[in-house]
Amino acid sequence: MGCLHSKTTHLHSPDDPSSLPDSNKPDPTGNGDEVNEELQVPAFKEYGLNELRKATNGFSTDYIVSESGEKAPNVVYRGKLDSNRLVAVKRFSKQSWPDAQQFVEEAAGLGKMRHKRLVNLIGCCAEGDERLLVAEYMPNDTLSKHLFHWDKKPLPWEMRVRVAYFIAQALDHCNTENRKIYHDLNAYRVLFDEDGDPHLSSFGLMKNSRDGKSYSTNLAYTPPEFLRTGRVIPESVIYSYGTVLLDLLSGKHIPPSHALDLIRGKNVLLLMDSSLEGQYANDDATKLVELASKCLQSEPRDRPDTKFLLAAVTPLQKQKEVASHVLMGLSKNTVVMPTMLSPLGKACTRMDLTAVHDILLKTGYKDEEGAENELSFQEWTQQVQEMLNTKKFGDIAFRDKDFKSAIEYYSKLVVMMSVPSATVFARRAFSYLMNGQAELALRDAMQAQVCIPEWPTAFYLQALALSKLGMETDAQDMLNDGATFETKRQNSWRG
Fold this sequence. Notes:
The protein has helices spanning 37-40, 49-55, 100-111, 143-148, 157-176, 224-229, 234-250, 256-264, 268-271, 282-295, 306-313, 324-328, 343-349, 353-363, 377-381, 385-399, 403-416, 422-434, 438-451, 456-468, 472-494, and strands at 45-46, 75-80, 86-92, 118-119, 121-127, 130-136, 190-192, 198-201. By secondary structure, it is an alpha/beta fold. It folds into two domains: 17-328, Orthogonal Bundle (Transferase(Phosphotransferase), domain 1), CATH 1.10.510; 343-494, Tetratricopeptide repeat domain (Serine Threonine Protein Phosphatase 5, Tetratricopeptide repeat), CATH 1.25.40.10.
């Protein structure tokens, strides 16, 4: 297969453009369920810094979801708003956006865009030196993770062509909305939602007027015109789309020049990911390679437009009826935020540890009254003065937020007690959380549940620990269980 040098700027859809999918037509991979995306995504708003600080637990390193961690130039955090909505919060430096008003205006303009193939922007914040963007949260990692750093199985062919199609849809919509410039399109910019569907990050549509850096990747993957002029043009986005196609084809990050040499030498099989063997028709692979070659032309005018991309990748979708999470082998968990019935449940949902501590203090040990393994503290503390003193010192340390000492006293108490106390386990669990030991906190919260099987507090503390461990789906399940038992308890009281 030779390198394709034909001029393609004038090439729109090779078929009738009216036959192409767009954001207003049923999506062939959506199983016929067309949803008005605008109704699901909240309107763009300005958030207060305190609100976003609380949502990210004080911009905790535990909440960082950037693949490069703290080393990322602009760190992205997972967050949970007071409304229970999970969000991604991108934190810029003031140097990137010295003019707060300009930042807000740019973000608000981008926030008007809504599309099912974008990670939609839902807010921003510009207070003091902080410049923050808030977007929808995508729980299933980036294309980079699934292509280059997969754990269980490589991304299957059908999912790869679906990524190519969905991202072409996103780019075509951006082009229609006159957002023709996308900065540094790469495998890190493609993220997967809870259904396993890929989305294009809206962060790449944000202009950065201060430093002008539009490409942070290796120069080998940068559009030639950017190297020559330092400017990004709409055709630069097509070039970058071509590099993403190479990633999808090869499962590796191959420099375009090397890939084009293989294509010119008709060594296409050397380009293909060996793990895909038997998953695709050679004609389909050839068509995707040809499209990549067109996109990677050195002269911008020789590259196709977004309509051409869509027309080229649409026929490659062969398993449109199969859901993305099935293709990827992901378990699909729909997150349903419960209506919390108690202040403790609400505090755990907000990750408001100060409020949790206050509530545990006020509740004391009264929830253990009437438990099946009931043994009052009056009874067991009369056995020995040392046990009484240990409990007393543990409670004082817990009250005074000396959580390290509380752990020590409660650990001694657990050994002394002939009958376990759910409240002691709960208090030690919270102390472990405050001491940065989430796994031990989870263990103790589970022990509290063993003591009182339907105790909402035990489930809420497990939810806190699981959230700290980054296990949001499991944490949500625990919140739901806690709310269920809370409802059951309230109904029994009413009865």
